[in-house]
Amino acid sequence: MSIIAPSILSADFAALAEEIKDVDRAGADWIHIDVMDGHFVPTLTFGPLVIQAVRPATKLVFDVHLMIERPELHIPNYVAAGADRITVHAEACTHLHRVIHQIKEAGLPAGVALNPATPVGAIENVIGDIDMVLIMTVNPGFGGQQFIPQSLNKLRQLRGLLASRGRGDMLVQVDGGVNAETAPLVREAGADVFVAGSAVFTATDRAAAIAALR
Ligand code: DX5
Ligand code: ZN
């Protein structure tokens, strides 16, 4: 199974609702929404009000990736805005276990994201609590960066850890530099949810770009 999740970070923000409808028609499975606060990562994107404004554009899953500090202060606003699933960074959570359960108590699947330098062991003690692991395959903050090849070893390590703990069912998402060349490599290493920003939104034929990833 492959889930293709175009990241609207590379969409035309002046026409965000139309861009979302366009990738929906082009065959996207989820819409990946990169929330950046200008602190945890250098870039600042948008928050719950913009997400709420584009929520009527599609019925597809809104997969919200929070690259923000103190996510626990803001999670209720993202739930209210129409998020279907929320992923937080392990590096941004002093009390990761509590934040995961805050998401789950709101009724949403919870994901944990790991930056390239963060070991897979960072999720070891919450393996039973989460629904998805997001392996960042670039340093977060910008679209259009180069895939970090070491990510392939990390994905294999993660799949080994998950298997050893009876969580072979866990969704493993990759984000950053995913395109038609790198998608087969990350799939082979254990990924099943593919975030792609520039590879989808800069393509002249977005349906073909999504099909190529799949
Ligand atoms: C990285 C973001 C990604 C980004 C991916 O900080 O989390 O979702 O948009 O962009 P591409 O696919 O262009 O590397
Ligand atoms: Zn992302």
TrEMBL record:
GO terms for cellular component: cytoplasm. Its cofactor is a divalent metal cation; Co(2+); Mn(2+); Fe(2+). Gene3D superfamilies: Aldolase class I (3.20.20.70). GO terms for molecular function: D-ribulose-phosphate 3-epimerase activity; metal ion binding. CDD domains: RPE. Substrate binds at S7, H65, G141, F142, G143, G144, D175, G176, G177, G197, S198. This is Ribulose-phosphate 3-epimerase. It comes from Paenibacillus lycopersici.
